[in-house]
Structure formats: structure tokens, C-alpha cells
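EI: anyone free to look at a 422-residue chain?
SC: sure, send it
EI:
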Amino acid sequence: MLIKNSIVFAIFFSCVSISFSQPSHGNLRDFAHPELIKAFKINIPQKRIDDIRERVLTSRIPRQMPPDSGFTSNWQTGMDVKWLEGLKQYWLNKYDWRKAEKRLNSYPQYIAHIDGYDIQFYYIKGEGKNPTPLILTHGWPGSFYEFFKVIDPLTTPSKYGGLESDAFTLIIPALPGFGFSSMPPVPVNGMTTAKLWNKLMTEIIGYDKYLAQGGDWGAGVTSHLAYLFPQHVKAISINMFIWGTPVPVNEQTDAEKKYFSESDAYWQANFDYGRMQTNKPMMPAVALYDSPLGTAGWIAEKFWAWSDNDGDLDKVISKDDLLTDIMLYLVNEGGIDGSFWYYRGFSRELKGVGLPGYITVPTALAIFPKELLLARPPLEYAKKVYNVFRFTNMQKGGHFAAFEQPELFYKEIRASFKDYHN
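SC: here you go
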């Protein structure tokens, strides 16, 4: 049973101390139902920040296990503890949460009351007379912060080599249980989230037609939006293919056979974390809940493994950006354990099936070279799952596309949607 909105709203925001105010570049009158929305700014109590810092300071790091024969990187064991010690020292001596908080507050943010949920979202109006609405959805272990480097190029393209007519108005929500969105009453996933997003876009903000983009869980949400609401979603772009749609063996091409074989092996070798967060989520929840450095290590390992970094994570994602993403899992209501509810929702809500059926809405696929292997399909398979109108093999980049390669990302979005503006 859902708790009344007013009660959830009061308890949640008294805990994280978020101050409500009208941002200078946002206006509740922009929305169809302003009575269901409140503007806010993040203002985490200093006591909370000091508590996190103290636990980082007193944390102990285990000894390094050597990698297996034939491997040169300690990351092969799950963590390079020398790197983690460096992150710890940077966190204690150089990272400034208040500076990060100021940046997080530099774009207008809101909380929308939707079907018993409180959903945090950014709303940044594009330049020109009629910018096209585009909703961007993040995944795990990312956050809405992944998109910050592409906000200005997408909303003010005339300043970044584009035309005013290329502009988008961006809507960037936080998934349920992530960021400053409220925890769901039970584990949910893409189906519930797509329904919330469509109601946000069409009923609360007031757009009849819009575009959607996402990666990781965001790709799943974006795909469900297209499947459930094709009358509203004009086109989608995803930078992670949602795998799992079966193809009978006797109908598979050689490329598909190779893809399915390699994907099965990849799944078995690399998704222990996912099986744990889905099947036994309270195990990592208990282990990580009271350990900021443990949470940082759990998240950072995936950034190292899934980004295009040539063994040097700092080369593509700075410690400041990484720690801001990590902090969003430490200062929010749900914590790192709250994000595991989304994994549990994959088995509970979606029964472990990535997509409900063929996606008829026009779909652009951006395939980054260091994306998860099973998310880089051959074109012939992608066309059996989506109505593919654009299939782009990107030059470089990995799972966290907007974070790693913002220029490539926003130019691909601009090119993908050039024929779908208002």
C-alpha cells in the first residue's frame, strides 16, 4: 500500500534537508499541472557529510590479492587496492561536496508527485521558439549526473556547432530509489518506470509527443516507453542494446550464432554482481550500507570494467566526477541498497525478460566499442528486436557514454533525431 504523498514528501525531505525554492531559470508555470510539482535545491546537512567523511577516514582497506596468471592488472581480482587508497586520500583531502552540490543545483530541479511516487527531475528548456522535448534516463551505477556534460550542447546547440533548430528541452529524472526520487513500495523496474515517465511527460509537464534516450537500465525504460506508448514517443535512441529476445537456432545467422555464444559466456563470467543484486540483494546491502568506501569500491569497479579507459579510469572519468556519482548513492534516501531494488524488480516485475515485444517506434542504436559485449549485437539481430533506422558504431567510449565521451554522445543524439524535431 502506498503511503500518502504528503507524508512521504515530509519525511523524505526532512531527512536529506533539501531546500525548496524556485530556480531563477525555471518556472512552475511551464508545466500543465504545477500543483503536482515543487522546485527544490539540494542542501545536504553538514552533519551528514561529516559522518560520511569520518567513516571514510576510519575505513580499513584489505590486502591486495594477486591477479591470476596471465593477468597484469589487480583489477582482475575485483579491486586495485592501491587505486582505492588513492581515491580515499583524494576524497579526504581534495574532494569538495559543496562545490559538487553547487554544480548539481546549477540547473532547475523539481519533484513531481506521480501515482504515489516522488520523482526528482531536471527540466532545462532549450533555445529557440519550439525546442523538442527529450527525456534522458540513466542506469546503474550511474546517475542523472552522467548527463551534465551534454546538457548545454543539447539545449543551446548554437553555441556548440549546431543550429538553434537542433535544440532540445531536456527532462532528466532519477529512477525510483535513485538520486532524490522516493523509494518504491516494492521493487520495480522498466514497466513501472515507463508508466511514471510517460505520465510525467504527457500529463504533468504537458507534452503530447516527445523523444527518449537511455543507457543501462535507462535503455530498458526507454524501450518500454516506446513499446507501451508509441502514440506519444516519436523515436528513441539507446546506447545499450537490450538483449534476450530469442531467435530459434535454425534461424540464426552466423553472426548471430557467434553473438549468442559469446554473450552467454560473457554473462556467466561477468555478472556475478548482477545475480547477487537480483537474487540476494540484502547480502551486498548489509555489507555496503554503513561503508562509504565499500560503496565507492563496489561502484568504481564497474566504472573501471565498463568504460573505455585502457586500464586508467582517471583518464576518462575524473575522481571528482566519480565521487559525485558515488555521493549521490550515499546522501539520498535509498542509499546504495535502494538501487538494488531495481535489480530485484527485474525478476519481480519483468520476470527476467528484458523487453515485452518488438519495438515498432523508430530506434537509433549507438554502439560504443567498450560497451558490454552482450549489448553490442550484429545489425541483423538488432533489427529483429527494434525498428532500427540508425545503427552507429562509435569511435570510442564505453558503457557510460555521456560521461566518457560527451561530444560524441551529443553529436550522435543530434544526428539521430534531426528528422524528429517539432
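EI: The two ends are 40 Å apart (CA to CA).
SC: 👍
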